[in-house]
Amino acid sequence: MKIKRVMCPLDGSELSERALPTAERLAHRFGSELLLLRVVEPSMPAPAGVMPMLAFRLAETSRQAALPYLERWQKELATRGIPVRALLKEGGARSELIETVTEQAVDLIVMSSHGRTGGGRFLLGSVAEGVMRHSSCPVLLVRGAETAWQRLLVPLDGSPDSLQAISVASTLAEPDSQVDLLRCAELEGIPLSVQERETITEAIKAELEAITVPGAHTTRRVVEGQATGCILAQRADLIVITSHGRTGLKRWLLGSVAEQVARYAESSVLVVPIREQR
Q: What global pTM score does this model have?
């Protein structure tokens, strides 16, 4: 995975700005351009009892404040040697973010999982969820204070699609990072003998042993239980998970395992969209 351009959406709130240190660190590490995006809502029909001209002025004031805000961050980051560019767009936050990924050839989105944009919020179920569902590039949801990723967790489900998270984890891993490969054996409710369970577990372990993560110390673990619970129970600084994956008749879909992990994990989560294999 090559990271030539990192996009960090901002909405003027301190919460959205919490993603900036991570975005800056990645841009510095990979020599990437950092694109700061601010989306302002278009002018809406005046609410009942509000004069149309007043509503227009309020919207215009918001737009006029957005550009100096972006320029302030652009100048501050540029003084620290980061190639940075600011972009102000008008429209719906989710659709504009997704369109910008294609228009600007963005390789990675770094955003806070909480923050406000207009009357909405960067929350799962709103802007962030929509971006994760439709973005063509990986989306990193930053949680808490900026910290180095000493331990990366990569949940796998046995499908070729889920393996696409490994190259991303390999790219982001520091030289002293540990990458934990995790398989959750969802055997609950299946009538199996102890020997049969052991056989299945050993077969999964063998599959994991065949997987390598270039440039990183790798551990492999098989845990029996429901996927979401198993993943959330692990200790990690960053979880790297694909947005889709298949194992038998079960699927890891955004809206299921990946979404639940992104919503409830205490650590940062990187959601990797599946690319069609050719």
A: 0.85
